[in-house]
Specification:
By secondary structure, the protein is an alpha+beta fold. The chain is 39% helix and 21% strand. The protein is built from three helices and five strands, in the order ααββββαβ. The chain has helices at residues 4-13, 18-35, 87-101; strands spanning 45-47, 54-59, 62-67, 80-83, 104-107. It has a three-stranded antiparallel beta sheet with strand order 2-3-4, with helices on one face. A hairpin with a 2-residue loop joins β2 and β3 (62-67). It starts with a helix and ends with a strand.
């Protein structure tokens, strides 16, 4: 991840230096590479430019959404929602589709 327009606001949000943030992103990518095993869950890692307003993860038939703080302090527990079917899931499905289209896969290498 070398996009300074993406890294700068993220470093501010997490109150860290850009180089440290790049290292943490690299560590996270390596973590997912290590837990990927043949015959296991399909794991793919994508990078996308731009600042996100929330994180969302898809697990089979449900999604988990974590909200970002507008402060530079770390919350003891980030707010999270678990969503099944319905309008929130429909919104997230559309977000996943668009993010996927705008991203480049870094693992597994294409």
């Amino acid at each position: 991840m070398e996009d300074s327009d993406t890294l700068r606001p993220l470093a501010w949000r997490f109150d860290t230096e850009i180089d440290r943030l790049k290292g943490k992103i690299g560590d996270a990518c390596k973590f997912y590479e290590r837990i990927s095993v043949s015959g296991g869950a399909q794991i793919e890692v994508y990078f996308r430019s731009g600042e996100f307003l929330f994180s969302a993860y898809r697990f089979d038939d449900f999604s988990v959404v974590t909200l970002y703080s507008h402060t530079r302090t770390r919350a003891s527990a980030p707010p999270a929602l678990v969503c099944g079917t319905g309008s929130v899931d429909d919104f997230l499905s559309e977000q996943f589709r668009v993010i996927h289209q705008e991203s480049r896969r870094v693992f597994p290498a294409e």
